[in-house]
Amino acid sequence: MPATASPAQSSASDVAVRHDWKRSEIDALFALPFNDLLFQAASVHRAHFDPNAVQVSTLLSIKTGACPEDCKYCSQSGHYNTELEKEKLLEVARVVEEARAARDKGASRFCAFLYGRRLA
Questions:
Q1: Could you read off the pLDDT tens digit of each residue along the chain, which spans 120 residues?
Q2: How many Å is the Cα radius of gyration of the chain?
Q3: How far apart (Å, rounded) are the C-alpha atoms in residues 82 and 119?
Q4: Is residue 2 in some structural domain?
Q5: One domain for residues 114 and 92
């Protein structure tokens, strides 16, 4: 979007990826009514991606339970009795096998989690 245009005035045709945002432009985005912001986001998305494509993702927990961290919200923590069945860390070959199976089933993204943290 040109530096002279406000966020609400831009259209999909003049939307460019930027890394030079001014504080006033960021403030203007936060000040937009929600539906205007949603429209703005959809316009940027449509300028760069097929608006009707759906990304299929597959998630895999490569270790379940007994995490040594004490995140109060997380059922993976070993500090709580959540009745989760604990599983050891999956071997790399098994993770690769699961990723290939996900791809073969149509997934375009594969995310592996460890202790609730995304690895890929």
A1: 334 444 444 444 566 778 999 999 999 999 999 999 999 999 988 988 888 888 889 988 887 766 666 777 766 666 667 676 777 778 899 999 999 999 999 999 998 876 544 444
A2: 21
A3: 23
A4: no
A5: yes
Output the pTM of the full model: 0.51
Residue 41 sits in the same domain as residue 22: yes
Residue 19 lies in a domain: yes
Those residues whose C-beta lies under 8 Å from the C-beta of residue 71, and which sit 6 or more positions away, are 77, 116
pLDDT given for residue 90 in this prediction: 83
User: Within this chain, do residues 37 and 83 fall inside the same structural domain, yes or no?
Assistant: no
Residues in the chain: 120
By CB neighbour count within 10 A (0-12 exposed, 13-18 middle, 19+ buried), where does 12 fall? middle
Q: Which residues contact 23 (CB under 8 A, 6 or more apart)?
A: none
Amino acid in position 2: P
Domain that holds residue 34: 7-48
**Closest C-alpha among 50, 49, 37 to residue 10:** 37
Distance CA 35, CA 8 (A): 11
